[in-house]
């Protein structure tokens, strides 16, 4: 069972993940982002991806939760979908962690002083041409949020226990451009969590399900 108390969760993540830059991110700045190893299963074929980063904000409540956003319906891509705070890595960002913290401040007003970074997950290649590096962070309660309405219309929390229960990981599919595509979905009440967001949560569950001695520290 995945630990859902903040201290146990933090210990489990730091045993299995690292804040060293993930192996498959060669250049985190715009114009780079070419995967270092095309054999990585999270990387699709295609031109070099644009680098991006997201924050997985795990809120340190007595039973931990995950803070998620609903993207604005006015956005050009993934409008209205459930997502993590995040976006493109800018030239001034030192690394994916810096980009994820900056984006969280810009999108929802989450002050980085409330976030304790724990480790990177492996990058995900999106079908829209981004190489997305997720970073897990433990968020100290007591924060105030201010949403950027051009990017985010809502924020909400989902119990970590729900998201880390494989019984809630539904394997679904849709036909897109004439091909059937498969993805994970984790419906929670009226919230439909799916696509890369659900895939990242599934990857976090898989990493935390590994024995610590078998997982080692490999981002």
Any overview of this molecule?
With 219 residues, the protein is α+β, with helices and mostly antiparallel strands. It has one domain (6-160): Nucleoside Triphosphate Pyrophosphohydrolase (Alpha-Beta Complex). Helix content is 21%, strand content 28%. It contains 5 helices and 10 strands; from the N terminus they run H-E-E-E-E-H-E-E-E-E-H-E-E-H-H. It has helices at residues 6-16, 96-108, 160-163, 195-209, 212-215, and strands at 50-59, 65-71, 82-83, 86-88, 115-120, 124-125, 130-139, 152-159, 170-176, 179-185. Strands 1, 2, 3, 4, 5, 6, 7 and 8 form an 8-stranded mixed beta sheet that branches. It has a two-stranded antiparallel ribbon with strand order 9-10. A hairpin with a 2-residue loop joins strand 9 and strand 10 (179-185). The model is unreliable at 28-45 (pLDDT under 50).
Oligomer: single chain
**Strand residue content:** 25-35%
Cα separation of the termini: 22 Å
Number of helices: 5
Instruction: Estimate the mean pLDDT confidence.
Output: 84
The rough form would be described as globular
DSSP helix fraction: 10-25%
Rg of Cα set: 16 Å
Low-confidence stretches: 28-45
Task: Give a short synopsis of this structure.
With 219 residues, the chain is α+β, with helices and mostly antiparallel strands. It has helices at 6-16, 96-108, 160-163, 195-209, 212-215; strands at residues 50-59, 65-71, 82-83, 86-88, 115-120, 124-125, 130-139, 152-159, 170-176, 179-185. The strands form 2 sheets. Strands 1, 2, 3, 4, 5, 6, 7 and 8 form an 8-stranded mixed sheet that branches. It has a two-stranded antiparallel sheet with strand order 9-10.
């Amino acid at each position: 069972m995945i630990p859902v108390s903040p201290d146990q969760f933090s210990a489990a993540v730091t045993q299995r993940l690292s804040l060293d830059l993930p192996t498959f991110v060669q250049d985190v700045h715009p114009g780079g982002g070419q995967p270092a190893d095309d054999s990585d299963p999270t990387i699709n074929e295609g031109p070099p991806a644009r680098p991006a980063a997201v924050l997985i904000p795990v809120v340190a409540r007595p039973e931990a939760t995950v803070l998620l956003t609903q993207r604005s319906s006015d956005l050009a891509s993934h409008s209205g979908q459930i997502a993590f705070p995040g976006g493109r890595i800018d030239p001034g960002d030192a690394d994916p962690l810096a980009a994820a913290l900056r984006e969280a401040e810009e999108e929802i007003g989450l002050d980085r002083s409330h976030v304790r970074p724990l480790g990177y997950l492996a990058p995900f290649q999106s079908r829209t041409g981004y190489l997305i590096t997720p970073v897990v962070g433990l968020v100290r309660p007591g924060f105030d949020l201010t949403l950027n309405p051009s990017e985010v219309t809502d924020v909400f929390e989902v119990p970590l226990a729900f998201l880390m229960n494989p019984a809630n990981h539904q394997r679904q599919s849709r036909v897109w451009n004439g091909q059937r595509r498969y993805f994970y979905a984790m419906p929670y009440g009226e919230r439909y969590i799916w696509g890369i967001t659900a895939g990242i949560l599934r990857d976090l569950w898989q990493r935390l399900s590994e024995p610590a001695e078998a997982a080692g520290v490999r981002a």
